[in-house]
Each structure stands twice: as C-alpha cells, then as structure tokens.
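Shift notes (night). Ran 3D-(3,5/4)-trihydroxycyclohexane-1,2-dione acylhydrolase (Decyclizing) while the centrifuge was going.
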Amino acid sequence: MNQRAMHNEHHDTASASDATPARPLSGGTVRLTTAQALVRYLAAQRVTTEDGNGTEPLFGGVFAIFGHGNVAGMGEALYQHREELPTLRAHNEQAMAHSAIAYAKAHFRRRMMAVTTSIGPGATNLLTAAALAHVNRLPVLLLPGDIFVSRAPDPVLQQVEDFNDGGVSANDAFKPVSRYFDRIVHPAQLLSALPRALRVLTDAALCGPVTLALPQDVQAQAWDFPADFFAPRVVRFHAPAPRVDELDAACARLRHAKRPLIVAGGGVLYSRAADALHRFATTHGIPVAETQAGKSSLAWNDPLNAGALGVTGSPAANALAHDADCVLAIGTRLQDFTTGSNTLFTQADVIAINANAFDGLKHRALVVEADARLALDALAEALPGWHAERTWTARAHKLASGWRDTVGTLTHAPQRDTVLPYEGDVIGAVQRSSAHSATHDIVVCAAGTLPAELHKLWRAGKPGAYHVEYGYSCMGYEIAGGLGVKLARPERDVIVILGDGSYLMMNSEIATSVMLGAKLIIVVLDNRGFGCINRLQQACGGAPFNNLLENCVQGPLGAPHIDFAAHARSLGAQAEHASNIAELEAALQRARDADRTYVISIDTDPARTTDDGGWWWEVAVPEVSSRDAVRDARAQYDAQLAARADPAASDEPADHE
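Came back to this:
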C-alpha cells in the first residue's frame, strides 16, 4: 500500500471489487460475521477534515500481523474492505502499535488507527504499547485474537491457562492498561461495545487505548446485524466546557497573581488551543513554559516562550517557575519531570485546566475541568484589563531572549576533530540542514539523553513539530513512531533521532517504512551503550556498571562493533556513517534528497550533556552501602528530601541532576 492510497478518500460503504457483498435480509438486517461487522463499522466512521471543508475516514488504516487467531476471521474481513480501510503489514506487534499511536498523536487525536494480532505472543507484544498509549492519553484500538469461547479445543495453541479461573486468557493482562476493555463472546455484543469504544477514543477526558479481545471462533460467527448500524457517520469529539463556579474561582486567583506562569501541556495541542494560548499569554503578559508533550504549543521564538520546564528544562523557564506566585497548568498531569519531583513551584498557587479531573487533581491544584481552548477563551473573556506585573513580564522577555541566544550558541559550537560531538551538536546540524526546519520538520524521539537535549534545544516553529514520547519514555518507540508520524503527515520531513540502545531494541519498521514508501530520516547517535543511565548511575554514587558496553560482562571476543549503516542498508534503506558534524551536515542533505528512508550514524560522547538548565529529580539512593560515593550521594538525597518537606527553609533553587 503506497502513501497515496493511505490518504485517498473513499466512499463510506464501498468495498473491494472482488469482495462478496453482504446478504441483506428482510427487516433491515444484514448477515455478517463478527469480524466483518467490526471492520465495516470502523470503515463507516468519518471525521471532518482539518480545513473543515469535507470529511475523511476516522481510521487511517489497520496495522496487522496475521497468525493463529486472526488470519481467518479478521484477515478475511479486512481483505473485503481493504480499499476503504487499508491494511498495513508490519514486522513487530509492539512496533506497529507504536506507529498507530504516533499516527493519532500527529493528528492531535482527531484521526487514529487500529491494530490486530494473533493470540498468545502476538497479543501480549501489544502490552507495552497499550501502557504507553494509556500514560500519554492517546487513542488506539487494539484487536488481539483470543482463545475459543466454545473451549472445544482446550488448551489451544498459545493459550495461557489460569489454574483458578477458566475464563481468563492472556488478554486479561490488557485490563490495567486499557481505558476500555471488552471480550466479544457473541456477535451482538458489537452493538454496545463498538459505540462505547468510539466514545472512549474520541472523548478528551476518557481518551486512551481500547482493547476488544476477539475469540477466534466468535470472529467467524455470523449474525443478523441491523443495517443502519453501518450507516456512515461523522464522529463528534467530546470535550467539557468550563463550569461557571470553577471558572470564577480560577479568575479570582489570577486577579490576585502578580507573577503568573503558564505551563503548556499536551492538552493544548490536542484541543488545538495554540492560537488561544498565544492570545491569552500576549494579552495578559504571562510567560509560558512547555512540558515534553506540550512543546511546540508556542513558536520557539515567541517573546513569552521561556522554553522547556523541569528536570529537562531551560534556566529561563525554571527560574520563572521557582519565583511564580501562580501557575496555570493547562493540559498537563504535572508529572515529576515537570515539577522537579514536586520541588519546583511549591510556593505558587496552582490552577489546573484539564479535560480529565483525575489529571487536574495534582499538586493540590484548583481544578477547572474543561477543554483547554474553551477554558482559555472563557478566561480571556472574564479577565479584561488584567495583566501580570509589568516587571514580571519584562523579566520573562529578557530571560526568554537570553535563552534563545544561548541555544544558538550551544547548537553552533565550533567542532574539534579530537573531541566527539554530543547531542546538542547533532541537533544543531539537523536544524541547519534545512532553512525551514523549525516549521517543516517533525522531530521524533522517546528515551535516553536525547529527550532532555531536544526539550531544551529543538526549535519548533509550529504545533506538532516536536513529537517526543516521554510519558512512558519507551525505548524502541522512535523508529516505529516516526513511521506513524510520516503516515499522518506525508508532506513533512520526519526526522527520527535516537541512540544506539533504542535502535538495537527496535529497528524492524525501517523495512516497513521502505515497503510503504514512508520515507524517514533517521539519525543514530552511537555512544556505545546506555549513556543516559550510565550517568544517572554515577550521579547516585554507583560505579559504571552494565550500561556502557565497555562495563558489561563480555566473552573472549569482547563487545561487538555495530555497523548501523550496513544494518540499515540490509533492511532496504540508504545509509552512511558520518565521522564528524561536517560530514553529518553533508549526509543530511543527501538524506533530504533521497527517495527512501535514509539512516545516518555518528559516534557521540556518552558523558557530555548541556550544563544549562535542569532541576532536581528524585531517584532513591541506597541508605546503606560500603562505597563512599553512594554514602555521599545519599547525604545529598536526604538534604533534597528535607528541602522539599520544608521549602520555606531555603529560597535557593534545588540543585539539578
């Protein structure tokens, strides 16, 4: 299936020319198998296009790896509807689910994909991706095969048996990592299960992974479905408007604030509130700091954009957060990297605008349970004439401008052949490789040192230009996620930047990207191990151990030298190794001109990082150790715990890691 086919619009009820038409029955019913009904229902769902001038399929396609448990039932159903609901073949179940999740994130949760697998390992391979989608509040429909409801063959191949409960299968493991779970044991259940699933997938407060476990005998079972169940429909997305009492309480706090700070989370992007955020911040003179999920809510050069916040934050944003008297947290669940493990803005009143009250009830916040855009528009209307203290706004402008200058210096540092480059050097080279990188490129990353450096240094010029999965910090998401982003945004250059550790964990979707014509530019930073965790290990007093390859148990041949370029070429990509930043810049030009996925590897320093910014992050250090370094680290840890317990005892910012 090529890129064009992925994005062509089709008639809602059309099917492949050689498909057998369903047999209509009297009384307005149509006889279909469970699998056929499910696929037909998904294909009938439409969504308004971004320009508002038409509709397009809600589901961009179905990723499928067929096997025992889904090849017959789901396979035949997907074949019948392969034109209006494309089926895409991947190479790893976890990876294809990551691709589906990234597709939804790149569409700001307005379009999505489904994933189907066999039973057994095919199904359980989805669990990590389900957890990732759950943590990041992203929609994906998971359709794992399941064991026979009849239990005629018992146990069936790949069945996980529970000695105490005959109704349990491996798919019950999805329950804690799904926002909605159902096991379809009769075709009629689809009449309630599918609308419920759609509601969760399209509701701002409920959004997350949905799992419908599909026993293989039920997939093939036929039933007379009401014909109107499959009528094409335009899906409406659900998000709450602010309540008057909660809005009034928030306005009362803001009117008393002199030094407010906005924390922009992913909810700003998902509610398409970037313009509303810009207007509100500009009108009221409020600086904005961005979480990982919220980065790109404001253009990087907006005068009030203070940059990244928290453990991976800029010195400008963290200084403002430390001194703010009121924090307006919009669309963020305020996880520990954002709040410095609850030490960064302990002195401030917190107002949390969030579609999900559970996510808003963090940091003892006053909650406005509402869609970000609706809430910002309502606050703007309710606060005419109110403005932050003018000296505070001026300070924010100065700090933000200074940080932008520092970023320019860090990403344009002169290079010496005797010193290995670090992540900041690579980020600078990527951005210099296109005059329009800030607005045209989409950078994709997930784990290791790179999310910290990208959070600080990447210049995102428009919403969605920064795509870093950091809620679950899942190694292996990067290339698979890049594929999903490219399928969602084929007109943009998608730049996947990852470390050698993540590449080795999951790289198979390079082959899928070549097969689909979904070109990626992949930059692999080879620091010969898990450099990020190696540094964290030593910061906690530990000895370098089991992270960098040189510190791992090795046989007589030693650690392997991995030729990432050769490996990528074996998967069908074009690839090369760059020896330095100058060679990397030249390689990036060739990559941009290439007709397929292009992989560039470069050796980097595992120890160097950007010194500017950062904040303390709580990682528990052992209370007892024979090593002086661990005991010293524990003493520093205890001091930070004491400072958090009594923040008034010190006016100084906590030391950062």
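The first helix runs from residue 3 to 7. Confidence is low (pLDDT under 50) at residues 1-21, 652-657.
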